[in-house]
Amino acid sequence: MTIFGVATQALFGQLLIGLINGAFYAMLSLGLSVIFGLLNIINFTHGAQYMMGAFAAYFVLQWAGLGYWWALLIAPVAVGLTGMVLERTTLKRLYQLDHLYGLLLTFGFALVIQGLFRHQYGSSGLPYPMPRELAGGQNLGFMFLPNYRAWVIVFSLAVCLTTWYVIERTRLGAYLRAATENPSLVQAFGINVPRMITLTYGFGVGLAGLAGVLAAPIYQVNPLMGADLIIVVFAVVVIGGLGSIMGSIVTGFGLGVVEGFTKVFYPEASNTVIFVIMALVLLVKPTGLFGRAS
Protein backbone atom coordinates (compact mmCIF):
# COMPACT_ATOMS: atom_id res chain seq x y z
CA MET A 1 0.00 0.00 0.00
CA THR A 2 1.26 3.47 -0.90
CA ILE A 3 1.88 6.25 1.60
CA PHE A 4 -1.14 8.07 0.16
CA GLY A 5 -3.30 5.00 0.74
CA VAL A 6 -2.16 4.68 4.34
CA ALA A 7 -2.82 8.38 4.94
CA THR A 8 -6.29 8.08 3.41
CA GLN A 9 -7.13 5.11 5.61
CA ALA A 10 -5.92 6.97 8.70
CA LEU A 11 -7.98 10.01 7.73
CA PHE A 12 -11.19 8.06 7.23
CA GLY A 13 -10.49 6.00 10.33
CA GLN A 14 -10.31 9.14 12.43
CA LEU A 15 -13.44 10.45 10.70
CA LEU A 16 -15.24 7.31 11.84
CA ILE A 17 -13.94 7.70 15.40
CA GLY A 18 -14.98 11.35 15.30
CA LEU A 19 -18.51 10.44 14.21
CA ILE A 20 -18.73 7.82 16.97
CA ASN A 21 -17.62 10.34 19.60
CA GLY A 22 -19.90 12.92 18.03
CA ALA A 23 -22.87 10.56 18.34
CA PHE A 24 -22.31 10.30 22.09
CA TYR A 25 -21.62 14.04 22.40
CA ALA A 26 -24.87 14.76 20.56
CA MET A 27 -27.05 12.38 22.59
CA LEU A 28 -25.66 13.47 25.93
CA SER A 29 -25.74 17.18 25.12
CA LEU A 30 -29.27 16.73 23.76
CA GLY A 31 -30.39 15.35 27.12
CA LEU A 32 -28.69 18.24 28.90
CA SER A 33 -30.32 20.77 26.59
CA VAL A 34 -33.77 19.26 27.08
CA ILE A 35 -33.37 19.46 30.86
CA PHE A 36 -31.88 22.96 30.89
CA GLY A 37 -34.05 24.40 28.15
CA LEU A 38 -37.31 23.19 29.72
CA LEU A 39 -36.47 23.00 33.43
CA ASN A 40 -33.57 25.48 33.90
CA ILE A 41 -31.51 22.84 35.73
CA ILE A 42 -27.83 22.32 34.88
CA ASN A 43 -27.73 18.54 35.32
CA PHE A 44 -24.17 17.62 36.29
CA THR A 45 -25.36 14.10 37.17
CA HIS A 46 -25.68 13.40 33.44
CA GLY A 47 -22.30 11.67 33.14
CA ALA A 48 -23.09 9.37 36.06
CA GLN A 49 -26.50 8.58 34.52
CA TYR A 50 -24.77 7.74 31.24
CA MET A 51 -22.61 5.30 33.20
CA MET A 52 -25.72 3.91 34.92
CA GLY A 53 -27.20 3.13 31.50
CA ALA A 54 -24.17 1.01 30.63
CA PHE A 55 -24.35 -0.77 34.00
CA ALA A 56 -28.10 -1.33 33.59
CA ALA A 57 -27.38 -3.10 30.30
CA TYR A 58 -24.72 -5.18 32.06
CA PHE A 59 -27.12 -6.11 34.90
CA VAL A 60 -29.89 -7.03 32.46
CA LEU A 61 -27.48 -9.42 30.74
CA GLN A 62 -25.95 -10.91 33.90
CA TRP A 63 -29.07 -11.20 36.04
CA ALA A 64 -31.86 -11.78 33.53
CA GLY A 65 -29.91 -13.17 30.58
CA LEU A 66 -31.41 -10.54 28.27
CA GLY A 67 -29.14 -9.24 25.54
CA TYR A 68 -28.40 -5.94 23.87
CA TRP A 69 -31.75 -5.34 22.17
CA TRP A 70 -33.71 -5.73 25.38
CA ALA A 71 -31.18 -3.51 27.14
CA LEU A 72 -31.90 -0.74 24.62
CA LEU A 73 -35.48 -0.72 25.93
CA ILE A 74 -35.04 -1.53 29.61
CA ALA A 75 -31.93 0.46 30.57
CA PRO A 76 -33.13 3.96 29.46
CA VAL A 77 -36.46 3.40 31.23
CA ALA A 78 -34.74 2.24 34.43
CA VAL A 79 -32.31 5.18 34.43
CA GLY A 80 -35.12 7.58 33.55
CA LEU A 81 -37.16 6.33 36.54
CA THR A 82 -34.25 6.96 38.90
CA GLY A 83 -34.01 10.46 37.45
CA MET A 84 -37.73 11.05 38.05
CA VAL A 85 -37.33 10.02 41.69
CA LEU A 86 -34.38 12.40 41.98
CA GLU A 87 -36.40 15.24 40.46
CA ARG A 88 -39.44 14.66 42.70
CA THR A 89 -37.47 14.38 45.92
CA THR A 90 -34.80 17.07 45.52
CA LEU A 91 -34.59 19.05 42.29
CA LYS A 92 -38.16 20.37 42.38
CA ARG A 93 -37.17 22.47 45.39
CA LEU A 94 -34.56 24.37 43.35
CA TYR A 95 -36.53 25.60 40.32
CA GLN A 96 -36.98 29.11 41.70
CA LEU A 97 -33.38 29.43 42.86
CA ASP A 98 -30.19 30.36 41.04
CA HIS A 99 -28.78 27.81 38.56
CA LEU A 100 -25.75 27.38 40.80
CA TYR A 101 -27.77 25.49 43.41
CA GLY A 102 -28.92 22.89 40.92
CA LEU A 103 -25.41 22.52 39.54
CA LEU A 104 -23.94 21.95 43.01
CA LEU A 105 -26.63 19.45 43.99
CA THR A 106 -26.35 17.41 40.79
CA PHE A 107 -22.54 17.52 40.98
CA GLY A 108 -22.77 16.07 44.48
CA PHE A 109 -25.11 13.33 43.29
CA ALA A 110 -22.67 12.50 40.47
CA LEU A 111 -19.80 12.06 42.93
CA VAL A 112 -21.93 9.85 45.20
CA ILE A 113 -23.14 7.62 42.35
CA GLN A 114 -19.69 7.23 40.83
CA GLY A 115 -18.20 6.50 44.24
CA LEU A 116 -20.74 3.79 45.00
CA PHE A 117 -20.23 2.03 41.67
CA ARG A 118 -16.45 2.36 41.91
CA HIS A 119 -16.46 0.89 45.43
CA GLN A 120 -18.55 -2.07 44.28
CA TYR A 121 -17.00 -2.79 40.87
CA GLY A 122 -13.57 -1.17 40.91
CA SER A 123 -12.02 1.00 38.22
CA SER A 124 -11.36 -1.62 35.56
CA GLY A 125 -13.88 -2.05 32.77
CA LEU A 126 -16.39 -4.89 32.61
CA PRO A 127 -16.76 -6.43 29.14
CA TYR A 128 -20.10 -6.19 27.39
CA PRO A 129 -20.58 -8.32 24.24
CA MET A 130 -21.49 -6.81 20.92
CA PRO A 131 -24.81 -8.09 19.47
CA ARG A 132 -24.23 -10.94 17.01
CA GLU A 133 -26.45 -9.27 14.41
CA LEU A 134 -24.06 -6.32 14.23
CA ALA A 135 -20.76 -8.21 14.32
CA GLY A 136 -18.28 -7.85 11.48
CA GLY A 137 -18.11 -4.97 9.06
CA GLN A 138 -17.99 -3.76 5.49
CA ASN A 139 -14.87 -3.26 3.40
CA LEU A 140 -15.46 0.02 1.58
CA GLY A 141 -12.14 -0.10 -0.24
CA PHE A 142 -10.72 3.01 1.37
CA MET A 143 -11.56 1.82 4.91
CA PHE A 144 -13.15 -0.97 6.95
CA LEU A 145 -16.49 0.06 8.48
CA PRO A 146 -17.56 -2.00 11.53
CA ASN A 147 -21.29 -2.69 11.46
CA TYR A 148 -21.84 -1.81 15.10
CA ARG A 149 -20.21 1.60 14.81
CA ALA A 150 -22.29 2.40 11.73
CA TRP A 151 -25.39 1.38 13.70
CA VAL A 152 -24.47 3.69 16.60
CA ILE A 153 -24.07 6.68 14.28
CA VAL A 154 -27.33 6.10 12.38
CA PHE A 155 -29.39 5.22 15.47
CA SER A 156 -28.07 8.19 17.48
CA LEU A 157 -28.85 10.58 14.64
CA ALA A 158 -32.38 9.16 14.34
CA VAL A 159 -33.00 9.54 18.09
CA CYS A 160 -31.66 13.10 18.08
CA LEU A 161 -33.76 14.23 15.12
CA THR A 162 -36.89 12.56 16.49
CA THR A 163 -36.41 14.35 19.81
CA TRP A 164 -35.94 17.67 18.04
CA TYR A 165 -39.12 17.12 16.00
CA VAL A 166 -41.21 16.21 19.04
CA ILE A 167 -40.08 19.23 21.05
CA GLU A 168 -40.07 21.81 18.26
CA ARG A 169 -42.84 20.67 15.92
CA THR A 170 -45.57 18.93 17.94
CA ARG A 171 -48.31 20.00 20.33
CA LEU A 172 -46.62 18.13 23.18
CA GLY A 173 -43.44 20.14 22.63
CA ALA A 174 -45.47 23.36 22.59
CA TYR A 175 -47.01 22.42 25.95
CA LEU A 176 -43.56 21.70 27.37
CA ARG A 177 -42.17 25.04 26.25
CA ALA A 178 -45.23 26.90 27.48
CA ALA A 179 -45.06 25.16 30.85
CA THR A 180 -41.57 26.54 31.45
CA GLU A 181 -42.57 30.12 30.56
CA ASN A 182 -46.05 30.33 32.11
CA PRO A 183 -46.88 27.21 34.17
CA SER A 184 -49.99 28.71 35.78
CA LEU A 185 -51.56 29.41 32.37
CA VAL A 186 -50.81 25.90 31.11
CA GLN A 187 -52.21 24.41 34.32
CA ALA A 188 -55.40 26.38 33.75
CA PHE A 189 -55.97 24.28 30.63
CA GLY A 190 -56.05 21.12 32.77
CA ILE A 191 -52.45 20.03 32.18
CA ASN A 192 -50.56 18.62 35.16
CA VAL A 193 -47.43 20.76 34.94
CA PRO A 194 -45.44 19.10 37.78
CA ARG A 195 -46.00 15.69 36.21
CA MET A 196 -44.94 17.03 32.82
CA ILE A 197 -41.76 18.47 34.34
CA THR A 198 -40.95 15.15 36.03
CA LEU A 199 -41.49 13.21 32.81
CA THR A 200 -39.34 15.70 30.91
CA TYR A 201 -36.47 15.27 33.34
CA GLY A 202 -36.88 11.50 33.18
CA PHE A 203 -36.76 11.66 29.38
CA GLY A 204 -33.57 13.73 29.37
CA VAL A 205 -31.96 11.31 31.82
CA GLY A 206 -33.20 8.36 29.75
CA LEU A 207 -31.30 9.75 26.74
CA ALA A 208 -28.12 9.56 28.84
CA GLY A 209 -28.96 5.97 29.79
CA LEU A 210 -29.57 5.10 26.14
CA ALA A 211 -26.18 6.54 25.20
CA GLY A 212 -24.63 4.37 27.92
CA VAL A 213 -26.12 1.22 26.41
CA LEU A 214 -24.78 2.17 22.97
CA ALA A 215 -21.34 2.84 24.45
CA ALA A 216 -21.06 -0.39 26.46
CA PRO A 217 -19.86 -2.69 23.63
CA ILE A 218 -17.34 -0.07 22.45
CA TYR A 219 -15.83 1.33 25.65
CA GLN A 220 -16.75 -1.44 28.15
CA VAL A 221 -18.70 -0.76 31.35
CA ASN A 222 -16.71 1.41 33.73
CA PRO A 223 -17.78 3.42 36.82
CA LEU A 224 -15.76 6.42 35.61
CA MET A 225 -16.77 6.29 31.93
CA GLY A 226 -18.85 9.46 32.25
CA ALA A 227 -16.56 11.45 34.53
CA ASP A 228 -14.33 12.97 31.84
CA LEU A 229 -16.92 12.84 29.07
CA ILE A 230 -19.37 15.12 30.88
CA ILE A 231 -16.86 18.02 30.83
CA VAL A 232 -16.58 17.77 27.05
CA VAL A 233 -20.36 17.47 26.71
CA PHE A 234 -20.88 20.64 28.73
CA ALA A 235 -18.50 22.40 26.36
CA VAL A 236 -20.57 21.08 23.44
CA VAL A 237 -23.76 22.43 25.02
CA VAL A 238 -22.18 25.85 25.60
CA ILE A 239 -20.91 26.03 22.02
CA GLY A 240 -24.27 24.99 20.57
CA GLY A 241 -26.22 27.29 22.88
CA LEU A 242 -27.72 26.43 26.27
CA GLY A 243 -31.18 24.97 25.74
CA SER A 244 -30.88 24.72 21.94
CA ILE A 245 -31.94 21.24 20.77
CA MET A 246 -30.67 21.58 17.21
CA GLY A 247 -27.53 23.29 18.48
CA SER A 248 -26.71 20.23 20.58
CA ILE A 249 -27.18 17.85 17.65
CA VAL A 250 -25.21 19.81 15.07
CA THR A 251 -22.45 20.83 17.48
CA GLY A 252 -22.13 17.34 18.97
CA PHE A 253 -21.54 15.60 15.65
CA GLY A 254 -19.53 18.50 14.24
CA LEU A 255 -17.12 18.73 17.16
CA GLY A 256 -16.67 14.97 17.16
CA VAL A 257 -15.48 15.19 13.55
CA VAL A 258 -13.25 18.19 14.30
CA GLU A 259 -11.69 16.29 17.20
CA GLY A 260 -11.10 13.26 14.95
CA PHE A 261 -9.42 15.30 12.23
CA THR A 262 -7.29 17.09 14.82
CA LYS A 263 -5.87 13.70 15.87
CA VAL A 264 -4.62 13.26 12.29
CA PHE A 265 -3.16 16.70 11.61
CA TYR A 266 -2.17 17.90 15.09
CA PRO A 267 -2.55 15.10 17.69
CA GLU A 268 -1.19 17.20 20.56
CA ALA A 269 -4.23 19.50 20.37
CA SER A 270 -6.90 16.78 20.13
CA ASN A 271 -7.69 16.89 23.85
CA THR A 272 -8.09 20.66 23.98
CA VAL A 273 -9.47 21.65 20.56
CA ILE A 274 -13.10 21.59 21.76
CA PHE A 275 -12.31 23.92 24.67
CA VAL A 276 -10.39 26.27 22.38
CA ILE A 277 -13.42 26.41 20.08
CA MET A 278 -15.66 27.04 23.10
CA ALA A 279 -13.51 30.01 24.17
CA LEU A 280 -13.56 31.48 20.66
CA VAL A 281 -17.33 31.04 20.29
CA LEU A 282 -18.00 32.66 23.66
CA LEU A 283 -15.83 35.63 22.68
CA VAL A 284 -17.76 36.14 19.44
CA LYS A 285 -21.26 34.99 20.48
CA PRO A 286 -21.72 34.43 24.22
CA THR A 287 -25.11 32.75 23.74
CA GLY A 288 -23.58 29.99 21.59
CA LEU A 289 -23.92 29.26 17.88
CA PHE A 290 -27.63 28.44 18.03
CA GLY A 291 -28.53 30.13 21.32
CA ARG A 292 -30.80 33.10 21.75
CA ALA A 293 -30.40 35.92 24.22
CA SER A 294 -32.87 35.62 27.09
Topology:
Elements: H1 3-39, H2 46-64, H3 68-89, H4 99-121, E1 137-139, E2 144-146, H5 147-169, H6 171-181, H7 183-188, H8 193-219, H9 229-240, H10 245-265, H11 273-284
Antiparallel strand pairs: 1-2
Explain what you see.
By secondary structure, the protein is mostly helical. It has one domain. It is built from eleven helices and two strands; from the N terminus they run ααααββααααααα. It has a two-stranded antiparallel sheet with strand order 1-2. Helix 2 crosses helix 8. The mean pLDDT is 89.
Keywords:
two-stranded antiparallel ribbon, 294 residues
What proportion strand? under 5%
Bulk shape? globular
The secondary-structure element order is HHHHEEHHHHHHH
Overall mean confidence score, pLDDT: 89
For the record, give the distance between the C-alpha atoms at the N and C termini, rounded to a whole number. 56 Å
What is the count of DSSP helices, taking H or I runs of 4+ residues?
11
Helix-residue proportion: over 70%
Low-confidence stretches: none
Please identify the structural class as seen in this structure: mainly alpha
Order of strands, widest sheet: 1-2
Radius of gyration: 19 Å
The number of strands is 2
At a glance:
This protein is an all-alpha fold. The protein has eleven helices and two strands, in the order ααααββααααααα.
